[in-house]
Amino acid sequence: MNPISKYVKLIEWGWNESWQASFDALAASSFVNKRLEPARVTAPLSQLYQIVAEDGERYAEVSGKFEYEASSRGDFPAAGDWVAAELLEGERRAVIHAVLPRRSAMIRKSAGNTMDEQIIGANLDYVFIVNSLNQDWNPRRLERYLIAVRESGSLPVVLLTKSDLCDDPAAFIAEAEQIASGVPVFAVSAMQERGREQLEPYLEPGRTVAAVGSSGVGKSTLLNWLAGDDLQAVQRIREDDARGRHTTTHRELFLLPGGAIWLDTPGMRELQLWDSQGGWQMTFADIEALASQCKFGDCRHESESGCAVRAAIEEGELEATRYANYRKTERELARLARKEQSAAARHKKHGGARDKEYGRKPKHRSGTADLED
């Protein structure tokens, strides 16, 4: 008998033989005396987690041992994670003892000065980077999202929403395609029922897709449109600046009628990058290629002779604003790396104890912390 055949409901949520093998290995190596079942985190809430197990939805908390051994916020379960859970008999509660190794994870730096990571979503096949075709269109923001998604291990797709409000969607598509080289770009309109067929190849049964972007770009509207139901409330954007108001308050997985799993996320005013060197290089591969053509290997692309980057800017082949964002994110990642090294050195110096600057042992907090920040 195939061991996954008993997990009919979980298969709907993406469970497969690969996850089964990962679960079996974890249970055999660390939890021989525990009666555990696989489950998927559908929503991290304040202090608790909403999970789906084979017998349906439950609310769960992490075990005391799990919380004690966690070294950072990123160690705690996130939306999309598969977990090993103890299902409490006679109750709709569960205890999470472990998180199965993630296949992908979109991460950002937590808000504030704390050096910690926040998992936006885990085990995602595709991430739809959602931008609206109104005055909130921001090419530089698109670049930041591309960096984070490419670093995550998921495949990015750019969705340009509200195409019905735009006189020339083709111009925005061309600009997005130039920024996101090699990434699919689609313009859609939920109001006019336009573009759904372009998304169908990414929404196959068992696949997990996330929608990320700032408030007001239409993520919840997309979900309702694709689901054919009002799963999430939506609000009108502010007319004076095209900025959205809070609709989604936490990350949550939804099962679409066609069988795909959709992660709806709160809007983010700013995406602070986290350990994204590889994603940065992929997103700015054109500038990296130009830099390799400079006359001098240590060219700073300022006033040196034979600088291919400055020449491309002067000849209009490279946007000055794109190059400025390239340098800005380069400096940002360098500062982050220095802070991480400093934190690691302090951690080692104090024998593993956490100093005051970087906080105490992590206590999981989510819920309202997921709001746009």
UniProtKB/TrEMBL annotation:
Pfam (any one): RsgA_GTPase
UniProt keywords, alphabetically: Cytoplasm, GTP-binding, Hydrolase, Metal-binding, Nucleotide-binding, Ribosome biogenesis, RNA-binding, rRNA-binding, Zinc
Needed cofactors: Zn(2+)
Span of domain EngC GTPase: 122-269
Listed GO MF terms: GTP binding; GTPase activity; metal ion binding; rRNA binding
Compartments where found: Cytoplasm
Family: Belongs to the TRAFAC class YlqF/YawG GTPase family. RsgA subfamily.
Protein name as it appears in the record: Small ribosomal subunit biogenesis GTPase RsgA
Record gene name: rsgA
